Automatic annotation (TrEMBL), chain A:
SUPFAM superfamilies: Nucleotide-diphospho-sugar transferases. This is Glycosyltransferases. It comes from Salvia splendens (Scarlet sage). Residues 473-488 have a biased composition (Basic residues). It is an enzyme of class 2 (transferase). Keywords: Cell wall biogenesis/degradation, Glycoprotein, Glycosyltransferase, Golgi apparatus, Membrane, Signal-anchor, Transferase, Transmembrane, Transmembrane helix. Involved in the synthesis of glucuronoxylan hemicellulose in secondary cell walls. The keyword Transferase applies. Its EC number is 2.4.-.-.
UniProtKB/TrEMBL annotation, chain B:
It comes from Salvia splendens. It is found in: Golgi apparatus membrane. Keywords: Glycosyltransferase, Golgi apparatus, Signal-anchor, Transferase, Transmembrane. This is Exostosin GT47 domain-containing protein. One of its GO terms (cellular component) is Golgi membrane. One of its GO terms (biological process) is plant-type secondary cell wall biogenesis. The keyword Transferase applies.
Length: 503, 458
């Protein structure tokens, strides 16, 4: 439409100029020199000139002004392309209600563009709108979302170590964002500590913090077993306190999508979801080896390299088996101890991929299915419980969730620093760090090579962030002592930036 | 709906007319024949000032014209389910005239774009009727007669229909059916119906002033017109016309559905023009200034997601919005209404005196929000002061599948869709009043009325 309209626009534009002048030509041709015609000619010429100057049809505006002085049924604010030359009249309170028998007259033609005096949002109305939106969304949830949502009981085994804050904060934020009622059972190896307690207290969630005696072992094998023990311990708490809801296992280094929590509401007794296995550690050589391995594998047989653990369904949508992560390419190079720079392998089926109805672990509950063993019988002798499947006498009753395992709703990852790595307790640097200046004569073992001043400035700036006005004097003294030109420059820069930071 | 304006080879007066009409209306409150004649003469003259003086003179005499419009369309308010679910089969019989293919098939062959634009209802209605159960091959037992003329299929290169030949085409078709069959002359078309989905219906013009000047084609005055245009007290809407929604391709709409539990987070949504710089460079004509007012008042308001963008997620965004603005453009109707209803977004209708589709079957006041054009600057106040339970109720009514079905023209036809609503509307007009049957030789229609150009054979 635009092209045709554009063509016409050319015609129309020129027309609006011609319109003033063509009648002029007509009169000249008419050759009737009566005073009336001369008067009209003159008036026309004046109109033309004014229109030329203003850039639009002046007469229309006059019509509009003249005739909207009479009772018009609307509040009028005149808007025009030349806002500076025309006044903006606004009378929002004036409302002449003209009610004819046949309804208000709708007129064809030019209308004013109504602008109210303060065309900006009113905060009270914005709040009202937000409340309306909230209410609409709540209604949507109740209509299309899950009816009777059940409490989610999340069990997280953890222990104090360098990566704990990173991992636990991730899980915490996922749980804070999901909209169902929650009970978070945090099981800590080595007993409860203030560090963990203060971290989870920041979430504002309902938590049960319990400790299990015994330090977390150093080897991955043992750590998996210990974690299973911790989870069983948590299940015993669920049993004792008769917590009602859906039990899911939120390992602290895993990543959960919010869809997962919506999906697990559909579980009846025990369900399984697909878990994406991210068994990858740093080190590019790993990647290369992996590629070569996968090529070799493909030649042998068609095996899916999909890093997913979860239920496998047959054509009719029933549970037919299990997908597990193929660990064979990594077996020689897997990580042994925590912090080892190698691939950390998952177990056959991770606990994280299962969800249970909490009633399965209760003592005497009516309607408890026959195929479940009593919790007390499991793990009594300290044997390793690999997955909740050990709770079942018959594993075929597991419900596959997430459109039959096709949707991966959570990801398994194990990233840890070495067990002996140091980190500030609850990540607060207190007391402040001692300043360390790289001395030229005795280089540090990992010190970077000699670099120009500006790079050095970059490397030294981070130590500058604390506020230590008292020590600035000693720094200056050192700079004078070193007698190195560019070092002095560096320190001066540092001092100046520190001052900037202080201010 | 976008408008074309022809380059006016004519005169100054062409531009006068709008201003004149306004001032006249303001003075009188009614359009009258005399002042219109005066203004027509003005167009021939060369001075706006002269016209002004003349008009003032005649207006002061106070000649009143006849009110052309009668009673307004009625609306049955009640549960949406009742009337919408009526099954027209058995209630009426429709005879489809077999016109030569130059009136329908050939035109469609020349330009298949007619099947997807918003005026495609005329083509699909024909196809529906050919295979429908209400069709009868015996014209003597028919209650209604349908003439398949595709008058909105003469498309410009940009896709917009040119209505210049439509009056002649329609006239030619009517001449044909009145010559070949006796049923037209029996009632002079009072039991015939035509689909005229163009901008201003059977006025056959896209410019409102011109359309009003032409008026409904004189030969169609007695027939039932099924059209998208609807405005009360307007020349181009006859009493007894059936208003239908514009055509929206159902597959395209259904392919953009998102899960219903996606939370509605946009408060007010609108995508479209506010100023039509091509056809209305001065501003104030397009949409009677309502769209421009919307923009100027709410461009800074974060609750209003309005812009001239053409996003690919237009349909998805409508499903995430609570209110969808449906302001008038060059004509009061727009496909936005259909889209809003289907996507469950409450339509905010800003078009004074509009007559909405199937107004006697769908309780529009209970589903949508009506805002007068003069109240547009206070739209945010109006919308936020609607009580929440009213909003929830409107959303519930919109979620009713029969409502959505009634707005669509699916292929093949399904029960409760727009085709059936049209038939229901026709069935509700039965039985025909005995007075429509003319005595033999009696003539009511004036075959020579209308502009001279219309009489040229097509």
């Amino acid at each position: 439409m635009k092209q045709l309209a554009a063509l016409q626009q050319q015609g129309r534009r020129s027309n609006s100029f011609r319109s003033n002048s063509s009648p002029l030509d007509a009169t000249v041709d008419g050759a009737i020199k009566s005073p009336a015609t001369i008067f009209w000619l003159f008036l026309h010429g004046v109109c033309c000139l004014i229109s030329l100057v203003l850039g639009f049809r002046f007469s229309r505006l006059v019509f509009f002004l003249l005739f909207s002085a009479s009772p018009s049924p609307s509040t009028t604010t005149i808007y025009s392309a030349l806002r500076t030359t025309l006044p903006v009249i606004s009378s929002p309170q004036e409302r002449n209600v003209s009610a004819d028998g046949g309804g208000s007259r709708v007129v064809v033609g030019r209308h004013g563009i109504l602008i109210r005096p303060w065309p900006h949002p009113d905060p009270a109305e914005v709040m009202k709108a937000h409340r309306i939106i909230e209410r609409v969304q709540a209604e949507q949830r109740s209509q299309y979302g899950v009816k009777n949502p059940r409490t989610v009981i999340a069990i997280t085994p953890t222990y104090v170590r360098t990566f704990q804050t990173l991992h636990l904060t991730g899980v915490m934020h996922s749980l804070m964002n999901m909209r169902y009622d929650l009970v978070w059972i945090v099981v800590e190896a080595g007993g409860t500590t203030n560090e963990t307690a203060s971290l989870i207290a920041k979430s504002g969630l309902k938590t049960i913090h319990i400790g299990v005696d015994g330090k977390m072992p150093l080897l991955w094998e043992d750590r998996h077993k210990f974690e299973s023990r911790m989870r069983l311990h948590a299940l015993r708490i669920v049993r004792e306190k008769k917590l009602d809801g859906i039990v899911m296992f939120a390992d602290d280094s895993n990543m959960h999508s919010l869809e997962l929590f919506d999906e697990i509401q559909n579980v009846k007794w025990i369900g399984a979801v697909s878990v994406g296995i991210l068994a990858h550690s740093g080190g590019s050589e790993e990647g290369d080896v992996l590629m070569r391995e996968s090529d070799a594998d493909e030649k042998d047989e068609k095996k899916s390299q999909i890093p997913v653990q979860g239920p496998a369904c047959n054509a009719s949508g029933n549970l037919a088996g299990w997908h597990t992560f193929d660990t064979r390419p990594f077996v020689e190079r897997s990580a042994i101890y925590i912090g080892d720079r190698a691939v950390v392998l998952p177990r056959k089926l991770e606990w994280a991929g299962f969800v249970l109805n909490s009633r399965l672990v209760w003592e005497d509950v009516e309607g408890k299915p026959v195929w479940v063993k009593d919790l007390v019988e499991i793990g009594k002798d300290g044997e390793d419980i690999e997955s909740p499947l050990s709770l079942l006498k018959d594993t075929s009753v597991v419900e596959p969730l997430g459109s039959c395992g096709r949707k991966v709703l959570l990801w398994w990852l194990r990233v840890e620093a070495r067990a002996d790595s140091k980190f500030p307790a609850s990540w607060i640097i207190d007391p402040p760090l001692d300043i360390t200046v790289p001395a030229k004569r005795t280089p540090w073992p990992d010190a970077p090579p000699e670099l120009p001043a500006y790079v050095e400035k970059v490397t030294t700036i981070p130590e500058n962030t604390e506020k230590r006005p008292a020590k600035s004097g000693s720094k200056r003294k050192r700079s004078s002592r070193s007698k190195r030109k560019h070092n002095a420059k560096v320190l001066d820069i540092r001092a100046s930036t520190k001052h900037a930071g202080d201010n | 709906m976008l408008k074309l304006r022809r380059p006016s080879s004519s005169r100054s007066g062409r531009a006068i007319l709008p201003a004149k009409q306004m001032q006249l209306a303001v003075l009188n409150g009614k359009k009258s024949k005399d002042t219109e004649e005066v203004s027509a003469r003005c167009e021939m003259e060369f001075s706006m000032w002269g016209c002004l003086l003349l008009a003032l003179f005649t207006a002061s005499i106070g000649v009143e014209g006849i009110d052309r419009r009668g009673a307004r369309t009625e609306r049955i308010s009640g549960s949406a389910g009742d009337v919408l679910d009526d099954n027209p089969v058995g209630k009426l019989k429709v005879y489809v005239y077999e016109l030569p293919s130059k009136y329908n098939k050939k035109i469609l062959h020349k330009d298949p774009r007619c099947l997807t634009h918003m005026f495609a209802a005329e083509i699909f209605m024909h196809q529906f009727l050919l295979t429908s159960a209400v069709r009868t091959l015996n014209p003597n037992e028919a209650d209604w007669f349908y003439t398949p003329v595709y008058s909105t299929c003469d498309l410009a290169p940009n896709g917009l229909p040119l209505p210049f030949k439509s009056p002649r085409m329609m006239r030619s078709a009517i001449q044909l059916i009145s010559a070949r069959w006796p049923y037209w002359n029996r009632t002079e078309g009072a039991d015939h119906f035509f689909l005229v989905p163009h901008d201003f219906g059977a006025c056959f013009h896209y410019q409102e002033e011109k359309a009003i000047k032409r008026g409904i084609l004189p030969l169609l005055q007695r027939s039932t017109l099924v059209q998208t245009f609807g405005q009360q007290n307007h020349v181009c809407l006859n009493d007894g016309s059936i208003t239908i929604p514009p055509y929206a391709p159902p597959e395209k709409i259904m392919s953009h559905l998102i899960p219903p539990d996606t939370p509605r987070s946009i408060f007010v949504y609108f995508r479209g023009l506010f100023y039509d710089v091509n056809n209305d460079p001065e501003g104030g004509y397009y949409a009677r200034g309502a769209r421009a007012s919307m923009w100027e008042n709410f461009k800074n308001n974060p609750l209003f997601d309005i812009s001239t963008d053409h996003p690919t997620t237009y349909y998805e965004d409508m499903q995430r919005a609570v209110f969808c603005l449906c302001p008038l453009g060059w004509a009061p109707w727009s496909p936005r209404l259909v889209e809003a209803v289907i996507f469950g977004c409450i339509p905010v209708i800003i078009a004074d005196d509009i007559v909405l589709p199937f107004a006697d079957a769908i309780p529009w006041e209970e589903i949508g929000v009506f805002v007068a054009e003069k109240d547009v600057p206070y739209l945010d106040t109006i919308l936020t002061s609607i009580p929440v339970d009213v909003i929830l109720r409107k959303q519930r009514l919109l979620a009713n599948p029969s409502m959505k079905q009634a707005m669509l023209f699916p292929q093949p036809a399904q029960s409760g869709d727009a085709f059936h609503q049209i038939l229901n509307g026709l069935a509700r007009k039965l039985p025909h009043d005995k007075r429509i049957y003319l005595k033999p030789g009696e003539k009511v229609l004036n075959w020579t009325a209308g502009p001279v150009g219309d009489h040229k054979p097509w």
